[in-house]
From TrEMBL:
This is Ribosomal protein. InterPro entries: Oligoribonuclease. PANTHER family: OLIGORIBONUCLEASE, MITOCHONDRIAL, PTHR11046:SF25. One of its GO terms (molecular function) is 3'-5'-RNA exonuclease activity. It comes from Pristionchus fissidentatus. Keywords: Hydrolase, Nuclease.
Length: 296
């Protein structure tokens, strides 16, 4: 009830006692608003009329659509039929004389609209590109942050990680593991705000980071996300990938299960990437990747 009172007070604040529109209404206001409608039915009716034109005549030009609307809502044909035949002829001829200028103005408007649409499309593509670049940069930083410790995939591994560091370094290691799961593995959040590592500028405490990473590891081990590397003949193999004429050498660091999908994890100096095993085998056949051991 209190919230409703605040809402309606804000809505009618200018009209209740003390508001700028309260008190005696001047003759100027009365004259200015004399022809104003008491409801918005006419406006809504106009919207409905134009909406019908869009459905039934989608390619109709804007000036023609506006003319249909004004003729209908202003009862123009009834007014025109009330004139004599000579008056009707003069009115129609005068109206037709403005058609070329209206068409020219419409073409000018359409060209301007097309330019604006193209401009906004380019801006949107730039925004998407910048966003993707930012996400890729965050992903690379997340991978670099755990490069010395590797991925913690069990509670025992978490205990070892905690024993390896003290103080702020331990907090940083916990944050790095959580960020890696968020930005590199793209692990779904098992609970709300689990990846929010600060509140109003205040970092999450070490104990809470420990708890969250344990939750992520347990959720991971259910089989819906990444699990430790399985025994596979590809693991440890040296590999070369081609980007056009440029080659980059790396290695197969793991073959892992993510639910029903088997992922091949490849480590290169520039990045660490994962491919579904069937897709990776196709890329091998196409020559995008080469197993260096097979070339010896």
């Amino acid at each position: 009830m209190e919230s409703s009172l605040k809402y309606f007070k804000h809505l009618f604040d200018d009209f209740i006692t003390g508001g700028k529109y309260s008190g005696v209404v001047s003759d100027d206001v009365i004259n200015t608003t004399r022809s104003a409608s008491a409801t918005n039915r006419s406006i809504e009716s106009g919207f409905g009329f134009v909406d019908r034109l869009f459905r039934h005549s989608p390619h109709m030009s804007v000036p023609r659509r506006e003319a249909h609307l004004m003729i209908s809502k202003n009862h123009t044909m009834a007014w025109l039929n009330s004139k004599s035949s000579e008056e009707r002829r003069d009115i129609v001829l005068t109206s037709r004389s403005s058609v070329p200028s209206i068409r020219a103005e419409n073409e000018k408007w359409k060209s301007h609209l097309a330019r604006e649409i193209l401009k906004r499309a380019v801006e949107r593509e730039r925004e998407i590109s910048n966003k993707n670049a930012l996400q890729a940069n965050k992903r690379l930083k997340a991978i670099d942050a755990i490069s010395s410790d590797g991925i913690v995939t069990s509670l025992a591994g978490l205990g070892s990680l905690l024993r390896s560091y003290t103080g702020s370094a331990r907090v940083a290691a916990l944050r790095a593991q959580i960020r890696f799961r968020e930005r590199a593995l793209l692990q779904s959040a098992p609970e709300q705000n689990i990846y929010t590592l600060s509140t109003k500028g205040v970092p999450v405490a070490e104990a809470e980071l420990h708890r969250r990473l344990a939750v992520l590891i347990e959720d991971d081990r259910k089989g819906s996300h990444l699990v430790p590397s399985i025994d596979h003949s590809l693991v440890g193999r040296s590999i070369r990938r081609w980007k056009g004429e440029v080659a980059e050498d790396g290695s197969v660091v793991a073959v892992q299960k993510r639910g029903a999908t088997t992922l091949v994890c490849l480590n290169f100096p520039s990045e660490t990437i994962s491919y579904p095993l069937p897709e990776f085998e196709i890329e091998l056949d196409l020559g995008s990747f080469e197993l260096l051991d097979d070339l010896l």
